[in-house]
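ligand=S-adenosylmethionine
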Amino acid sequence: MLFGAIQAQALGVAAELRIPDLLRDGPTGLYQLATATHTDPMALERMMRLLVQMGIVAESRPGKFICTATGKHLQAESPSSLRNYTRLTNLEMVLHVVARLGRSLHTAESQFTALHGKGFYESLPNLPAEAAIFNGAMQEISEQDIIDMRDAYDFSRCRCVVDVGGGQGHLLAALLDDYPGLNGVLLDVPAVIAGAGAILHDHVAGGRCRVVGGDFLQSVPAGGDLYLLKRVLSHCTEEQARTLLTNIRSVIAPKGRLVLADPDPASLYGASFDVLMLVLLGGGLRTGKQLKELFAAAGFAYKRTVGTSGELQLIEASPA
Ligand SMILES: C[S@@+](CC[C@H](N)C(=O)[O-])C[C@H]1O[C@@H](n2cnc3c(N)ncnc32)[C@H](O)[C@@H]1O
């Protein structure tokens, strides 16, 4: 654990340099890897030794490396790729805020905002390279989230789903594919929904889907009977969370449902994610009690928690 930061950084660099991709065709020599990655062979060898110990690569013969089953998750074209997610959590601007965790413990505020004077999401449109990695990471985690949510939750009773902060629409597209009677609305900031066209094109053309660029802290599209917040409420500060839920409450159908999908804080992944949300965004996961208080303040009542086979749990609420 003590060396967790350096191991995470080795993962990030391996993903960035595409080392697992370079090993796709079988055993590859150190010098060949160094040439392809424009790195110093002796320095690279030291990182490769660490990656061997971490189980990302294996040394099949002295000086020849292969990619392990775990390492394949860092290959760009792998169906279970987490390459961009790994790059995202190892971006310099993310590591800078992680190093300031102690400060967040005193202020309970985002170190990104403290360092840059504006929030992470406000800054992304001016950081195209980082935004591309962020969007790629969201797509990667969505692939597994979608499988887990489809299995865990019955969307068939729903008429119109509004995916609030729905990224580029991967979840919404999957739900519209699954349920031919369902309509949908995607809301995200304009810079993000610019990439949603290709993903939702057929559903938009068929009149079953609308794509809205906007700010969920200002307003949320009306007309939905299911409002979905996947990996969104955990990214909000208390004040933002209350505003967002109040905005949804003002437009949701009287018998509508609100579904939050976020990691379970009582897991190692959830607890790590929670602390990252604190330093990066001033947000975080909420306990059952905290959620009930938040729901009550925004005019919702907690209904139930539905587990999934993956990282997420689904929390359902309805207008009080
Ligand atoms: C962590 S991502 C989750 C995306 C998607 N729900 C998923 O799980 O893949 C949070 C999303 O909220 C969007 N977002 C953040 N602040 C927003 C705001 N004020 N209004 C609309 N969308 C916002 C971001 O652009 C981003 O796409």
